Amino acid sequence: MSDVENLLAVEDLHVSFPGRGRGRRAARTDVLNGVSLAVRPGETLGLVGGSGSGKTTLGRAILGLVPARSGTITFAGERIDGATPRRRRTLSRDLQVVFQDPYTSLNPSLTIGDTLSEPLLAQGLSRAEARGRVAGLLERVHLPSDSAARLPREFSGGQRQRVAIARALAIGPRLIVCDEPVSALDLTTQQTVLELLLEIQEGTGVSYLFVSHDLAVVRFVSHRVAVIHQGVIVETGDAAEVTERPQHVYTRSLLLAAPVADVAEQRARREAFERERAAG
Prior knowledge:
Elements: E1 8-17, E2 29-39, E3 44-48, H1 55-62, E4 70-75, E5 78-79, H2 85-91, E6 95-98, H3 112-122, H4 127-140, H5 157-169, E7 175-179, H6 187-204, E8 207-212, H7 215-221, E9 224-229, E10 232-238, H8 239-244, H9 249-257, H10 263-278
Parallel strand pairs: 3-8, 3-9, 6-7, 7-8
Antiparallel strand pairs: 1-2, 1-4, 4-5, 9-10
Helix pairs in contact: 3-4, 5-6, 9-10
């Protein structure tokens, strides 16, 4: 599929971080090593990998929070990997993020209404227009209208993450980078937030790059899945194919790490994997 048909296209992306000290001790650490992926309009691409795999760094590079050493990032036909801070501020209308921790991603001193109004006012809406839009956002994420007058500390973790999602939706983005958006939540709340994300996508057509370490969560929300390991995409394809019939040994290890209700089944899966790995 061409870049014109993709909303987001990452090609041969390399990201390195400087080491500490001088001389050899200051050697750079390669975090991303030639990563390529694409997200289509209205699609969820699940990016899954373990700790240190480079998945969060990739999301941050797309958002302009870390610089690329080489490669390209194209959004809606425009190359953005070298975008200026001013252009990045403009891009935020179409490119938003939901972070992992709902407890730290919201300003504790601002009411929910003020938090949701900020990006709207920055886009030139009047305060009256912003208040009306905030009411609609709260309704979309299934929070009561009186939430606007309350502070973040008055909400549960799941409710705070709904507020974070509402903030990301405020100015009608085309793509949202979801960086481990449910990993800090209990299982029941995870399900609620994931279903909300699916509902919002169906209603708005927004695309998601859904970053997670949990293959089961990625399978639930994604159309396609890309598996990243040591800064390299090792497997990609339709979500069902990758998560049910993984080809790469690393993907199979992630699948085994996902818990299942039947302890005997989990043990059998692990034993089969160990036999396969031992056989080479």
